[in-house]
Amino acid sequence: MAKIKKRLTISEEFEIMKLVLDKFLWLGFIVMTFGMYTMFTKTFAEGLVWLIVGAVILILFMIIIVREYEIIK
After folding, report:
1. What is the crossing angle of helices 44-68 and 10-41, to 10°?
2. How many CB atoms lie within 10 A of CB 35?
3. For residues 30 and 53, what is the distance between their CA atoms, to the nearest angstrom?
4. N- to C-terminal Cα separation, the chain
5. Contacts of 13 (CB under 8 A, 6+ apart)
6. Are 54 and 18 in contact (CB under 8 A)?
7. pTM for this one?
8. Which whole-number Å values give the CA distances from 45 to 1, 33, 41, 56, in the listed order?
9. Nearest alpha carbon to residue 60 among 15, 30, 23
10. What pLDDT does residue 11 have?
11. pLDDT at site 64
12. pLDDT at 1
């Protein structure tokens, strides 16, 4: 027997998407903060790598939002 899947409204889907993407923001922020900490405590180059990784995470976040939702100016 196949289960009938519940369909989400647009607002419900958006709320779930916000919860998931909020985690990307926190992850990017934490990685970039760790990069700043590493810059001050270890080497500049190692910290810079962590900062770039955090920036890539945030750019991925932006790409997901732009692809998923049509943003009207």
Report:
1. 170
2. 19
3. 11
4. 46
5. none
6. no
7. 0.67
8. 57, 15, 12, 17
9. 23
10. 82
11. 77
12. 63
pLDDT in tens, 8-41: 787 887 788 788 878 888 888 899 999 999 999 9
Q: Render 7-39 in DSSP notation, one character per residue.
A: PPPHHHHHHHHHHHHHHHHHHHHHHHHHHHHHH
- Chain segment 40-73, per-residue pLDDT in tens: 999 999 999 999 999 998 888 888 777 776 655 5
32 C-beta neighbours (distance < 10 Å), count: 19
Q: Which two tokens stand for residue 44?
A: 């500049």
Angle ∠(51,57,63) on CA atoms, nearest 5: 135
Long-range contacts for 64-72 (Cβ within 8 Å, ≥24 apart)?
A: 64/21, 64/24, 65/21, 68/17, 69/14, 69/17
